[in-house]
Amino acid sequence: MFMYTPSHVGITGNERADELAKSAALDAALPETNYGLSTDWKSIIKSAVINTWQSQWDLNSSHLHRITPSVNQDLHLPPDRRSQVILSRLRLGHTPLTHSYLLNQEDRPLCIFCQQSDLTITHILRDCPALINSRKACQVNCGNYSMLFEDWFKLKSFLRSIKLINNL
Ligand SMILES: [Zn+2]
């Protein structure tokens, strides 16, 4: 099973390894080349790259594409690492709660709240009828699914209220 976690920023040993790697790269660096690209050209090239990337991204129909339709969209990350890990997993739709069945070679589990649908992140956050009141109490707006991930504190409050925050 593959679980995404954000980069190793904040981990002392890894940051030291990065510093040493950057230092070694600078020592061995080739002379900087200036091709004389003007700011206008850089802007045109950047725009072309983003347009190509967006075209490729739009061929995707994943959970992540639904909540991040634009490749040029700023992500608002929560301040602490644990929250960043949870939010990243929610955005990808892959969490220990919803995908540990793969590792255990079991069938996909049903929702633990309504027992009527597969246990998925979308079902828990947006669709489960048994969680309507919890969503309302935490003011979680699931009308626009991608906006749900923009307010981490409401989302975290909701996940705490349904006692799933430690299973993600
Ligand atoms: Zn349900």
TrEMBL record:
Matching PROSITE patterns: RNASE_H_1
Annotated organism of origin: Tenebrio molitor (Yellow mealworm beetle)
Domain of life: Eukaryota
Alphabetized InterPro entries for the sequence: RNaseH_domain
Protein name, per record: RNase H type-1 domain-containing protein
Positions of the RNase H type-1 domain: 1-26
GO molecular function: nucleic acid binding; RNA-DNA hybrid ribonuclease activity
